[in-house]
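Progress narrative, work stream C.
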Amino acid sequence: MPPLPPLVDPGPPLDRGATERYARHLLLPAVGELGQRRLRAAHVAVIGAGGLGSPALLYLAAAGVGRLTIIDDDVVDVTNLQRQVIHPDAAVGQPKVDSAAAAVRALNPDVDVITHRARLSPGNAAELLAGAHLVLDGSDNFETRYAVNDACAALGLPCVWASVYRLQAQVSVFWADPPAPHRGTDLRDLFPAPPAPGTVPTCGDAGVLGALTGQVGSTMAGEAVKLICGIGTPLLGRVAFVDLADATVTHLPLAPRPAHTASPAPATPPTHQHPLVTPTDLAAELTSETPPVVLDVREPAEVAIAAIPGSLRVPLADVLADPTAIGLAPDADVVVHCKVQPRAEAAAAALTQAGASRVRVLAGGILAWVREVDPSQPAY
């Protein structure tokens, strides 16, 4: 199989300042002066200025990528600082795109930075990705990941994709229609459809080692440089499975799905199927003569941070495996909660399907409880 051709045509010759700044690239035969000119002419869109986007943005800026578009709708939270190294402590409360843009400009003022404080969706993807040569997807939710994937496929853009979970990660390059004779793949070849809402924990639910996001984000930046310059063998048609605990990286082949198989429709956000109860109303009910059973479906490490006193603690996976094993009466008054709400919705649905008739969900989860009822406990 021949190598992929360079993605970007070279820009103008380097001046003396650029020659000095990128001297270590110029010494690399694989990059050299021509490759550096390609980097300076490149436009990379980065989805998410979080754990993966932080190192990716810093290394792309340091590499001399000429234009970076940063897309993120979130603000910096103190819990981000453990892994999202592009944001300083002073940026807590600021939009992530603003904090990330400031860090990129401080590192390399020659980089043109475009920011969009928005969440990419099918409706705005073409506008947000306009002019980009490739995309790095560092998003942390399935709805955005599939929207990014489908937008890149429609626009003909290669996408460097990764996901992290605790001490493990996956990295790949998706490109629906690469130059012949290479075969295209995308996220739907790996995961044909998103999982049911609430069934897969996010980093905010399950935790993640900060150094792993640094390793994976740097790998994403390296894949982008390879594609731009046309060097090495990018992860197109392969998935790199990273296990930090075992210090291993395993490459798994990824084949395109049959051409006649239509892509599943993107998942739509679930509608609430169960009544919601506010934290203040639940607090009042818990002091009554007939308090409800509070079922906490978070993981034990989450419960150790903050919990509702007297709650029944059963992780979501156990609830989904056998809802009847919890031992609740079919007519028991049950209020289910998790960190925010999605896992509680999934657990409530499983209980109802198993015959429970009085199931409610705590609106906003334990974070809302801490905020509105018991601020003495920490949020996470």
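Work stream C, second folded protein:
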Amino acid sequence: MPTSYQSPMRGDKKSEAKTTSQSTETNTVKEVATVAKVLEVKGGSVYTIGPDDTIKTAVTLLKDRRIGALVVTTEDGALVGILSERDIVRKLAETPGQTLPQKVSDNMTHDVETCSPDDNLIEVSRRMTKGTFRHMPVMEDGKLCGMITIGDVVNYRLTELEHEALQLKQMIVG
């Protein structure tokens, strides 16, 4: 039969274990969130396409992979652009019925904003918001090592906030 909890009495032996009080600082101090932290959770998979491929090929890849953008690279892996759903929709509006056979290189964004794994996540988020784009290739030592999206940033931050709320709740409850 299980025993019930009984609070300590005056004559009980004191525990030799040392306890430390919790504080706001010990419960909320955390390291700065970086792009690398997001990639640890998400992984470094990046879907690429060549500049000479067609928009039809790109659309198929986007649909099959359930993603919103493709990084455009040369055969040797050099970053030359990015093609997003938004780029394709704009081109469809400009050239209805003639878009799918066009080359990726004629429709991609050429000036691609990139980040590195060490970049601060808040700063990357601000850059994406200011530039009104949702996908950013991650480069390390001149090589593509991942892709971060605004959704990744939001999900990471929501998880952080849930964790912080739980820590504060534990601090309050004890």
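The domain at 32-173 is CATH 3.10.580.10 (CBS-domain). No further action is required on this item.
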